[in-house]
Design goal:
- Helix 11 runs antiparallel to helix 12.
- The termini are far apart.
- The mean pLDDT is 95.
- With 298 residues, the protein is α+β, with helices and mostly antiparallel strands.
- A 6-stranded mixed sheet has the order 1-2-3-4-6-5.
- It has 12 helices and 6 strands.
């Protein structure tokens, strides 16, 4: 299920795993290959991950080892992803997905490892279940944005239908996601991504007509406009969307995690940029941040 040490190291480089973590992952990989219990857990996890490859099913949980916390436990989902590579690559070939698109998409695994180290100062995967989309042929990196093959939810679908767009709950929609560590979210970068997305899905998934894009993000909280200038990248991004609804519960930790990469107390967070000051000052005043759900026609 796992390649040997030399090949594993090369695969980890292809997945953009930070170089400082590669030696540890390779070393622990020998244990995964040699331990029957670990190999059985790996096999079961891979079977679940690649089942119905390419079908739209959404995020699934990758396994946690029932062990005391340690580096092998934190990295075990990465071994599952490595072992699943032949299956998702075969799906990409069947669909004619360009090699560079596949490579940049799956490199989100390394971004996840980098985010774990930024947050906790140790190696591991921050949100491993997120990668179940990439390694199941449901999500692609196309320029600045990621595009998820998905179906429109109940509330967003009702809002779309109410505008007479002829689309509703359960219909196909492309979910937009904004990855970290990839430069500014400029209007030009978003325009390019959307153009790439329209062409990509029409060519490689022609049986799935995508007529709307959706997004659920703290970046769509309209309260940000109280702090950011009208020509800021975030406000320009917001203006693309028609808001269908707002999350009912505060998501204060979400912008803190994405902007600062940490869960430090507010009084220890820096206030160097307009966005950092906006996130911190709003919370200090007793306000809350919410996830906005928006859409626009493709």
């Amino acid at each position: 299920m796992l390649p040997d040490a030399d090949e594993l190291a090369e695969v980890l480089v292809d997945l953009a795993v930070p170089h400082e973590d590669i030696n540890d992952v390779v070393r622990m990989g020998r244990r995964v290959r040699d331990d029957p219990e670990l190999l059985h857990a790996l096999t079961q996890a891979v079977e679940e991950l690649v089942r119905d490859m390419g079908e739209i099913r959404g995020v699934i949980d990758l396994p946690d080892l029932d062990w005391p916390s340690g580096p092998l436990q934190r990295f075990f989902p990465l071994y599952v992803l490595v072992a699943a590579l032949p299956y998702v690559r075969a799906h990409h070939r069947d669909r004619g997905v360009p090699v560079e698109v596949a490579r940049r998409t799956l490199a989100d695994a390394g971004r996840n490892v980098a985010a774990h180290r930024r947050t906790y100062g140790t190696g591991g995967m921050l949100v491993p279940h997120w990668l179940s989309l990439h390694f199941h042929g449901e999500l692609y990196q196309l320029g600045r944005l990621q595009f998820q093959r998905d179906r429109v939810g109940r509330r967003a679908g009702a809002a779309i239908a109410a505008e007479g767009f002829g689309h509703g709950p359960g219909d196909l929609g492309l979910g937009l996601h904004i990855p970290d560590f990839l430069g500014p979210l400029t209007s030009e970068a978003c325009d390019r991504s959307l153009a790439l997305g329209r062409e990509f899905f029409a060519r490689h998934y022609p049986e799935e007509p995508y007529r709307v894009a959706t997004c659920a993000s703290w970046l769509l909280d309209p309260q940000l406009r109280e702090y950011l200038p009208e020509d800021s990248n975030i406000v320009r991004f917001q203006k693309r969307f028609r808001i269908s609804h707002m999350g009912s519960e505060p998501e204060d930790d979400t912008p803190v995690r994405f902007v600062f990469g940490t869960g430090e107390p507010l009084d220890r967070l820096p206030r160097r940029t307009v966005l950092e000051r906006a996130v911190v000052d709003h919370l200090r005043k007793g306000g809350h941040w919410y996830v906005g759900h928006g859409w626009f026609p493709l």
